[in-house]
Amino acid sequence: MRKVELKGITKSYDGKQDVLKAIDVMVEPGEFFVLVGPSGCGKSTMLRMIAGLESITSGELALDGKRANALSPSERDLSMVFQNYALYPHLTVEQNITFGLHVKKVSKREQKERCKEVCEMLGLTDYMKRKPRELSGGQRQRVALARAVVTQAPLCLMDEPLSNLDAKLRAKMRSEIRQLQRKLGLTMIYVTHDQTEAMTMADRMMILSDGDVQQIGRPLDVYNNPANTFVASFIGSPPMNLIDAEMKDSVLVADGHWMTPVTAAMKQKIGSGRVTLGVRPEHISLAKDSEPGFLVQVANVEVLGTETLVTFDFGEATQWIAKWPGQSSVQPGEQIRICVDDRHLALFSAEKGERIVCEPVPDAKKVSS
Amino acid sequence: MTLTVSGLVMVFPILYAFLISFMQGGEVLQGSLWPETFSLANFVSAFDRVPLLTYLWNSLMVSVLIMAGQLVLCSLAAFAFVFVEFKGREWIFYLFISTMMIPWEATMVPNFQTVQSLGWLNSYAGLTIPFFAMAFGTFLLRQQFKTIPKELYEASQIAGISKLRFFTGVVLPVVKTTMTTLAIYSFLTAWNMYLWPLLVTNNEANRTVQIGLKQMQTQEIASDWGVVMAGVVMVILPTLILLFAGQKRLQEGLTQGALK
């Protein structure tokens, strides 16, 4: 268990442009913390700075309350799993796992014992004498995990460890890694570009874009209360539907024909002018006869068995996606009448894309922690 | 078929030299291709005329020393150029590589003067040390080291493994094949050196085998080609053995990579 604290961490390679801008975050002991964002957002750089593989341009990194900026990677007492596993190709699985343990003054006998233990834990016992090239992708991934676990370092860093696996295996490893982390009580910092991984694994997550922190919070808080349009469209699959809307009298008008009434409080917050409206796909439903709704044309239908994704044209340039439970019989080209659940509308300022909170969100505190 | 014919054409000089080495006196000059009897007399007299064993031993020592020196220095230099970050690394590397464009003959005289002033004439030091730094070998190994994923180095940094241990424990085993290639290349180059040993040695105790061959050829006005060829066969034998032994090894290395 380890506490990791970043205070105003900044990284710049050329001294002009910052790839990470003043990151402040505290990772609690035993926490599964996920850094998520699109490629090139600086998440791997941040992880490598924590590992000591990349220098810190300014700011302070503290491990367990002690300044660690100048410590070498090995002095930080952590383990790391790389995207390409970084297994030594000429060594057997067993040698790969124990390679480097002698530095930590672990006796030969204990090395053997620890290796046996982690191999049993990860189901590698039958492969201990094999070379990495004789293993499948999933087995290699496990060896990399075993190598991180065997050091018994209290902090484990993972850099997109599952991106080389196929979808099925990825889901399995996701749950395995999470169980392992809980069992060993590791503090884990996990980098991924896959929002599903972030949502399913994280205790808390940080969404990064262009070196800026967009939001830090628990997965459901982030999902339900995205701080801005970037987070809204990045987290959730399919993403939140967004559209520009305009305040007219006491209704919001999107794309000239769809209107939604707003409360007086909302109106005051919004003022006059333009906003961005957001709706999660699951909050769009087929309108019943008695309900107010509006007509749209279906562009595509994806039936997934347990749910159906319906893409429809909304206005001239926008397509929205609705997610309905069950197997819908809607066909592409059909005109359907849909309605949107007003209670779940999200409003963002049109200029900066920031969330306009209209009514007190019950757990707003946790969102901004 | 074409391959066999061209193969025969290629191998003919060596084969002919081999056959001549068994021929008696006048047979060579009569232009016969096949010796009447396979006699070992030429080999005996080759050893009689020049101290061939001493020369062979010297050549072996010099070649092994140069090979070892080049492997150690080239691999360490390449390691620094790939895994150790320092200012002007690329620039220094290209400067290093550019020495490949300076012909060896141009540096021969200054090298000779240096060796002479160090008092290294007629010694293994003078014969070997000037060849230890090899731009080509460094270049070859650097390219090979670059194929090693950087994550391997980072993983060992996190584990706390020292640079030296990473070099000997990970880098060298991984590039074993290229190291073998370079070893064979530098051994053969050193074995075939003629001009430099001629310059820096002037007594029989330190000469190498290539000079011995030349001696055999020029000792008498009319060369006894049978004896010379016997000497040649003795000289190319280690080369051939090394090549065949190494070839097996190289093939192993290549197929290993192919079956990844």
Automatic annotation (TrEMBL), chain A:
What organism is the protein native to? Jeotgalibacillus terrae
The Gene Ontology terms for molecular function here are: ATP binding
Any single Pfam family the record assigns to this protein: ABC_tran
What keywords would UniProt list here?
A: ATP-binding, Cell membrane, Membrane, Nucleotide-binding, Translocase, Transport
Stretches assigned to coiled coil: none
**Protein's recorded name:** ABC transporter ATP-binding protein
The chain positions of domain ABC transporter read 4-235
